[in-house]
Amino acid sequence: MSITKHPIFQPLQRQELSLKNRLVIAPMSRVSAGADGSATAEMAEYYAAFAKGGFSMVITEGNYTDEAASKGYPNQPGLTSPLHALAWKPVVDQVKSHGALIIAQLMHAGALSQYSDDTKAPSAVQPVGVKMAQYGGTGGYPFPKAMSLDDIDIVKNGFVKAARFALQAGFDGVELHMANGYLLDQFLTPELNVREDLYGGSTSNRFRIAAEIIQSIREFVPPHFLVGIRLSEGKVNDLKYRWKEGEAMAVEVLEEVRKAAPDFIHIAVQSGEWERDSFYSSGTSYSALAKQITGKVVIANGGMHQLTRASTAIEDAHADLLAIGKAALADPAWPLHTLNGAQARAFHPDMLWPEATIQHTNKIIKSQQLSIA
Ligand SMILES: Cc1cc2nc3c(=O)[nH]c(=O)nc-3n(C[C@H](O)[C@H](O)[C@H](O)COP(=O)(O)O)c2cc1C
Q: What is the mean pLDDT of the chain?
């Protein structure tokens, strides 16, 4: 098959979303914003390179949503003030000038903050694993405080305000981060949420916070402003986590998602092991179920730079779009290079070690240019 015929290079035409190809930048935290959470000129260059390199949609790294307890790591960008909106604007403008859409990911770290020992979560359940050194973390995660209903109101207002600041900055939409073990995923995960009020217990209660956020955001944004949601089973601190109930739980969660009616659903596989970590014994995947149950645009993620996997994902109706992370970080022009038959620069773990900053990745790319296959 000629590469131009590959499903990743075919346009997507849906009422809510039209794109020139199926290639999306996965959200990647880069620890490179100013100390006050403002996006920088370096970030504008970094994000524009993906649009220039042929990706049709860029999802930013997770932005913190309130000043109370949402921050995940130092030098994380935020969307909590007009100044933050102003700082993102040049990044947004540059990405759009190359013809791509740009979506702001909204993230509350909850119990998985890398630097605060004063964390809050749905319940006082200590996260497993240790903090991530590349994001400034050291040692184990502390026991979080269980959120009061007032705390939950602060969280919800934070997400809604952040969406409004994203609109102000010119973003095409927002993605609620309900994946990878962060706050909204903590609400959704039965082992991490043992609340006995309206926000715990049944799947509908555990999803309630996201449903309420989506509904409130819709009240403030125009209809063309996209509101998406990212979901996963695996967590950054527990990559192989799967629901005990397997596919039955996926169906229950997606029924709630269908009712909340986001514009797109992004199913993440942080480990990159898509088949291992996103399929059920029946042979279906979380993302295929998302398509069937919700009828919405679905993005699949997890090693999707592998062309055979990518064509299976699209042709076998597991997804409409594919989000690419590390391969794009190594080579922002991955789509153009792949299309032109040039060898894309491959990802190397040193690009994110010992720190995950843009500056560090650029330094490694420069120094290892010749040794990276
Ligand atoms: C450096 C780095 C930072 C990440 N930060 C985020 C983030 O802010 N939000 C998020 O939802 N996922 C984040 N992820 C997960 C990626 O979006 C993606 O799920 C993961 O890299 C697997 O995709 P890949 O196999 O294409 O790399 C991050 C991944 C990397 C490598």
A: 96
To the query of whether residue 182 is one of the catalytic residues in this protein, the response is: yes
pTM assigned to the model: 0.98
**153, 211 contact by CB (below 8 A):** no
- Tell the residue nearest (CA) to atom 4 of ligand 1: 28
Domains belonging to the chain, first-starting first, are: 3-368 (3.20.20.70)
Give the total residue count for the chain.
373
43/357 Cα distance (integer angstroms)? 10
301 Cβ below 6 A of ligand 1: yes
Rounded-to-integer distance, Cα 104 and Cα 62, Å: 7
Q: Measured from the CB, is residue 61 less than 6 Å from ligand 1?
A: yes
Instruction: Count Cα atoms within 13 angstroms, Cβ side, for 360.
Output: 15
Query: How far, in Å, CA of 239 to CA of 202, rounded?
Result: 24
**pLDDT tens per residue, range 246-265:** 999 999 999 999 999 999 99
Distance CA 336, CA 176 (A): 29
120 and 206 in contact (C-beta within 8 Å)? no
Nearest one of 250, 253, 317 to 286, comparing CA atoms: 250
Q: Note the pLDDT tens digit of each residue in 110-145.
A: 999 998 899 999 999 999 999 999 898 999 999 999
Q: How far is the CA of 373 from the centre of ligand 1 (A)?
A: 22
- Which residue from 271, 141, 163 is spatially nearest to 210, judged by alpha carbons? 163
Residue 369's pLDDT band (cuts 50, 70, 90): low
Which atom of ligand 1 is found nearest the CA of 323? 26
Residue among 158, 170, 4 nearest 79 (CA): 158
Cα–Cα–Cα angle for 245, 246, 248, nearest 5°?
A: 70
Residue keyed to tokens 């039209």: 18
> DSSP string covering 123-176, please?
S--PPSSB--GGGT--SBPPPPEEPPHHHHHHHHHHHHHHHHHHHHHT-SEEEE
What is the torsional sign of CA 113, 116, 121, 127? positive
- Residue found by looking up tokens 């990706």 in the block: 55
Asked whether 108 and 148 are in contact (CB, 8 A), the reply is no
Q: How far is the CA of 27 from the centre of ligand 1 (A)?
A: 6
Tokens representing 91 are 């990044």
Give the residues across from 285 on adjacent strands.
279
Token digits for 107?
């993230």
